[in-house]
Amino acid sequence: MSSPPIFNEVTGAATEIFQRVCDARGIRVRIYVYVDDFMLLGERHEDVRAAFDVLDEVGAKLGLEWKTARTVC
């Protein structure tokens, strides 16, 4: 298996984990990933901000680092 499919599997699995944690905490967002871009959609700004906190917290446990310069909220 080559690197791109492996990367897609990893980001897909991370997205599922992020979504499960958000759902368990009552954070009403949907998380989508396209290649290396994550998109968080929610009706309330508070939910989107809380989801970013989940991505920071859980992402750190998974060894993921974010380029915050590209983050728009």
Structure, described:
This protein has helices spanning 3-24, 45-62, and strands at 29-34, 37-42. Helix 1 packs across helix 2 (45-62). With 73 residues, the chain is α+β, with helices and mostly antiparallel strands. The model has no long low-confidence stretch (mean pLDDT 91). Helix content is 55%, strand content 16%. The protein has a two-stranded antiparallel sheet.
Helix fraction bin: 40-55%
Oligomer: single chain
Q: The biggest beta sheet, please?
A: 2 strands, antiparallel
According to DSSP, the number of beta strands is 2
Instruction: Round the Cα radius of gyration to an integer and report it.
Output: 12 Å
How many helices? The count is: 2
**How much β-strand is present in the residues?**
15-25%
Strand arrangement in the largest pleated sheet: 1-2
Poorly predicted ranges: none
**So what's the overall shape?**
globular
Listing every helix as H and every strand as E from the N terminus to the C terminus, the arrangement reads HEEH
If you average the pLDDT, what whole number results? 91
End-to-end CA span: 35 Å
